[in-house]
Amino acid sequence: MLYSVNNREGEVMLHPWGLDCRPGTAMSSYRNEYHHAIEHPEAFWAEQAKRIPWTTPPRTILDYDNQGHARWFVDGEMNTCHAALDHHVESGRGEQAAVFWDSPVTGAKRRLSYRELRDQVALFAGALAGLGVTKGDRVVIYMPMVPETLVAMYACARLGAVHSVVFGGFAPHELAVRIEDAEPKVVIAASGGVEVDRVIPYKPIVDEALRTSRHRPDATVILQRDLVHAELGEGNHDWQALVDAAEPAACVPVKATDPLYILYTSGTTGKPKGVVRDNGGHAVALHYSMDTVYGMAPGEVFFSASDVGWVVGHSYIVYAPLLRGCTTLVYEGKPVRTPNAGGFWRLIEEYQVKAFFTAPTAFRAIKKEDPDGEWLAKHDISCLKALFLAGERLDPPTFHWLEDLLAVPVIDHWWQTETGWPIAANLQGLEAMSTKAGSATVPVPGFDVQVLDRDGKRAEANVQGSVVIREPMPPGCLAGIWHDPQRFHAAYMAAFPGYYLTGDGGYFDEDGYLFIMGRTDDVINVAGHRLSTGEMEEVLGAHPAVAECAVIGIHDALKGQLPVGLVIPKDSFSGDEVALEEELIALVREKIGAIACFKQVLVVSRLPKTRSGKILRKLLRHIADGKEYGVPSTIDDPTSLEHVHNAMLERDLGQASEARLV
Ligand code: COA
Ligand code: AMP
Hints:
It contains 18 helices and 36 strands.
């Protein structure tokens, strides 16, 4: 049943859950807060804004840009580094641990108090200032999971500079694309990172990226690590030498709407989107989420096993825990093989973690090696109060396995790089609800989530559609795409005016629980990492022997999805097909990086297309995933389907043997 309430403009809005929420009737804390945030966003967020320190408190709470997109706290001034570090030192939290670093791949561990971290950040900010970095300048950071990465990010924030962290698994070309777009004054890198079985020197990757990039930074700063030494050339500076000579820098107040960072994420084309995050709204939203979503109080330990190169790392390793006065655990290791499947349990016990957050794929990897939880039995994890999962859908088998294994709530929550914090969750700090397998539970206060059909009408309960967020989006969400307002409009705002398009499909059930079922565009999710099939197609299409190609994401039991390329060689191609496939695999690894997990290519002679020439990728996915499929009336050459199906069968691809033409 749908229930109507009046929204802030007095028009009727339908809420998907059926419970009575009229004033004066019994109302749950969740519904109360949700409706308050949607109906009175200015009052709601003005109150939340009081929880962070401002140099100039905002008087204008909500404003809109010329695309109708919300801007928060426009006349407020603050500094994110001050709110996360100096403020806590000044209010008596200086000796508390801000960061625990645990690196099984190097055998190192470190504890940094709030005071130590603040002092290191101030010095490194001084070093950056000495290189000419000032407010508004961009700084690209290419670093592994070490505390210095946090130091570098906070140092930028301290100066009002804009950092752009690039994940260490990306190849030189990807780094170069980001350097060209962000035009940084300085690039900061470590000498290397460690994967399970190998050390990865970063300096050659940075050098290659700078060689091919059209933009030249003024300087490159290198953090030398014991595991690998980087040769320093012209324009290169040693991190430690700079710090030794630096004076500490003070926090520079910035406007709430000034950018804190740019984080590139995959879109539907080859060019990644530079998601811009502001300072004030971001701090307010993350602070609110730590309390309301994660139920964290100051002084408690939060562990997010992601990488600082992803949004989860930005929000819930680097910024949110410290904004809230918690301790963050930085882990340079994997869920398995560093050295075993008990790594997470050890960390939870050793650092007395209260809430833990990772991607479902990490637990699928653990489950494969330790299905009965024998490693868990070796540890006392009674300190843990909740487990949060995101990055991809929490598949019901993994959800049930975790529920059986653990005595704490297992919470699937949904969000994206663009929003920066959860859109839907089971809110542990507000009102814990019962969970439903496959659902991210309910929209978080501030997010007016709706499911629309093709015509922009609200879908009934249990009917799938496009999941959108009605403006105003709450604080903390993307301010735009770096230097590309048109792309922002086209990608997010154009489809349904007044709504932000998430790119995910899904539905609300009759109880108002939200189910996110997958992307409606060419974005795929591999081991919790967001990748663009369009980008991979551009790489394949650039090979001289390839006439046409399609990349699809097929189901994988461990990583959720894996990319598969289908290529048609040019008529002139007379070489060896196996050699071509190997070359194409190597090309994607070289251009995008190992993280693309691109390991399967099929050479075919035809691809199913519509008469207007559009490749029927969804149909290809259905075949590879073993689903039933029909011949669409718009298909140009119906025999192409059988041809592709046979090619997949020959290679025993995915579940193609289960697929049936109906
Ligand atoms: N630097 C360089 N290379 C990296 C890298 C990094 N930071 N991270 C991953 N890679 C490489 C891996 O070594 C691997 O290379 P290979 O093809 O030579 O084996 C490749 O990229 C693919 O990595 P991945 O998909 O991570 O596979 P894996 O087998 O190494 O590990 C999991 C599998 C499930 C354990 C791992 O993906 C994982 O921990 N996932 C959780 C993801 C996550 O936290 N996502 C963030 C959103 S919450
Ligand atoms: P990223 O921007 O890398 O965080 O990836 C965001 C995308 O990951 C979303 O648009 C979803 O497609 C997917 N995603 C993240 N969390 C979930 C979840 N809990 N359930 C389903 N999909 C999710």
